[in-house]
Fold:
Amino acid sequence: MGIETSCDETGIGIVRGNHLLANVISSSMDEHARYGGVVPEVAARAHLEAMQPALEQALAEAGVAIGDIDAIAVTSGPGLAGALMVGVAAAKALAVATDKPLYAVNHLVGHVGADVLRDDGTEIELPTIALLVSGGHTSLLHVRNLVSDVELLGETIDDAAGEAFDKVARLLGLPYPGGPQIDRVATGGDPRAIRFPRGLSRAKDMEHHRYDFSFSGLKTAVARWVEREQDAGADFSIADVAASFREAVVDVLLTKAVAACVDRGVPRLLLGGGVVANARVRELAQQRCDEAGIQLRIPPLSLCTDNGAMIAALGAQLVMAGKPPSTLDFSADSTLPVTQIQA
Amino acid sequence: MFLAIDTSAGTSVAIVDVQGVVRAECDSADTRKHAEVIGDFIYGCLTDAGITVTDLTGVVAGMGPGPFTGLRVGIVAARTFAFGAGLPIYPVVTHDAIAFGEIEPVLIATDARRAEFYWSTYSGMDDVGLPLRAAGPALTTAAELAAHVPNFEHYVLRETPTVRAAKLAALAQLMKTHNRDFAGEEALYLRSPDISVSAGPKRVTA
Ligand SMILES: [Zn+2]
Structure:
């Protein structure tokens, strides 16, 4: 059983080895809509209320009793501190009550672990480069071994890509969450209409931030462009702005991810995180990977967004690798480094 | 035998038997380590009491009032422990447990941070020894406590920095014995999340 509460989804997943039995997600997204972004305290309160119903629903979906569970895994970080604490405390109490081994695992590595739960029978091939993009994180990883060897190549130095989508959507008067809205409006727009900046892509930046991302400058550039047009009373195309913005984000994400594959000699790219729901991300990823001879893997969308099944899957990998359970004294670590696969 | 968990101040876990005798107790005054210590405390209490989960008959949750980050750690732990062990859960207003045993009229005040107090008043105890809450729980600034609490002069102020789960368990045992209603399922945050709805995007150009 996997328990995930790092952001605004209360996720309870149940797996048997690499086989998915249940994936229950209770999201507080609607409660955040009027604030234009995830409010940590609102998310944490929702986790408290959703925890037991989600546990019950997951067991029912999997058709098992709590006593049938062999081990419990929980996200101990990274994520929102107050939200993580709810899952960590729940998992500890449940583990003691049921006398089950408890594994504290890394949320980001969990996104990679989701890929073992494929029903097409293909096994995850390692090493792989993994690009994990959501409203909470934007990270590029080099994964050699799921349970023992994950390297952080780069991450965002300011906003997460999903946050940039939310902020630009607001700017264009579109509701939260921004990703699907931008995707919708961008349809029919010209992605080459406006050349928005690609963060950390100049030669000078590439020396120190080859695999890092930055989206705050892009967001400002879009705001400037829109304000200038509005001030001039111009009748500009929102579709073009949305498409051009989206292209700037997706282009820089995939340029850096493909560069990592080439530099590291790893012909595999795995995508994870909620932003993978964006149609253009998947489309351009396929195109760039085909061009570079890279094998692309995208788990089903329900396993890309934050969920408990991926945490259960990673926990199962740790169990199968013979790793000892975590001791009960681990903390919720909002900045848990990706190299720490198990806390 | 009841297991009680309260994280409205520090972290407190206890096991108390049906006679109200404390069988095990784990406490930490640290207000930042709830999620870290909660597992060891529950496990430690079971071990210290020399019992297993099957010896328990209920789980008591301290519902606050308390600062939100810590408060819900204990509530979620109590709920999932009860769920995992197949035990009933008994929510208790934490202030009631602090006032439990007081004969004279008391004003319970606990730290709400930001120079504020959570407070409740009690007029004494009823015929079976359960505390009689007169007002609260509510939230007010430390400066306005006297003005805010009805009949403030009437009460002896008990400013309590820590909470003992053992008292929650003992209170819950007595309430159960006398078939009293337990608290609601709502966590007593008594404070809205800190958020403001922004007026819209700000201009980036002058
Ligand atoms: Zn995530």
